[in-house]
Amino acid sequence: MARVVDVPLNTAIADLDDALRTLLKRELERHGFEGVEIAFDAPSKEWSGKLTGPTIDLFLYDLREALDRSVATPTERRGNGLPTVTDPPLHLELTYAVTAWTKAVEDEHRLLSQVLAVLFSFSEIPPDVIRGNSSTTLSRAETSVGRPREEKADFWSSVGGQYKASIDLVAQIVIESGAVLVRGPEVRTSTVRVRQSDAPRSTMEELHRIGGTVSDSDGLPLAGAWIALPDAGRWTASDGRGRFNFSRVPVGTHRVLARTADGADGEATVAVPGGTCDVITRAPARGRSRH
Q1: How, if at all, do strands 205-215 and 226-229 pair?
Q2: Mean pLDDT over all residues of the chain?
């Protein structure tokens, strides 16, 4: 086994910012809120003092793993005969403090109300908004308007600003792992040579272990299929991944028959020693008995 780490390009957090900006500007303009700027700065007194127009600020103040969505099972894939195991993705929860900034309090409340309606209505950022950024590494983002992570009085003290009404927006995104465990090629054939201890070497008999897979015409593995070597009087069943094997198979060319519970069947040949066998089944002919 070999562990390969190839960290992919990831700009998911910045891409999430871009998607939120696009979504808010689009939805605000639909209702006449023209010229509203979308910012992501810390809402300090110094920052707010420089504003010249209506602004919505989304300040990312908390980022942590979403433990309720964490996955412990890695993903296994097969390619070029080698199985690879990828670590499960990291589910992240990002919390933004959303505030509205205008000259008049009434305008601020109107703007904040509309933003709340937008964020409450979209539980997931629309795919077309995400795809609008051609360089995005963000695949999906779920959102909710949730409770704050901390007391807001402490929050405003820490950012150096004056207390202000705000909305907490929680976004869920996924970060894929760049760590892959590559296993060695699967052993599907082996050879056992047997003879009596006092017999000459010419009486030695070779018995082989062979293996293969059974799948349907679309390449999907079939579990629980019946597999037989009729000429050798041997049979077995495929496992959950469509794999099967026979041990102590004599030298020669053998027919391999496969049949599923619903009557689909397939046939192949395998040369022993040295061969592996992959059987593709076909749907049962109309009118043929499935028993």
Answers
A1: unpaired
A2: 83
| Residues 243-290 pLDDT 10s | 888 887 888 888 999 999 888 899 998 888 766 788 898 877 554 444
Topology given in CATH for the domain delimited by 190-280: Immunoglobulin-like (2.60.40)
Side-chain-side CA neighbours of residue 238 (13 Å): 28
CB atoms inside a 10 Å sphere around CB 88:
14
The radius of gyration computed from the CA coordinates of the chain, to the nearest angstrom, equals 31
Those residues with Cβ within 8 angstroms of residue 279's Cβ, 6 or more apart along the chain or in another chain: 212, 213, 214, 215, 227, 256, 258, 266, 267, 268
Reduce the DSSP state of residue 46 to 3 states and report it. helix
d(CA 211, CA 164): 69
- How many other CB atoms are there within 10 angstroms of residue 84's CB atom? 17
Q: Where are the domains of the chain?
A: 2-182, 190-280
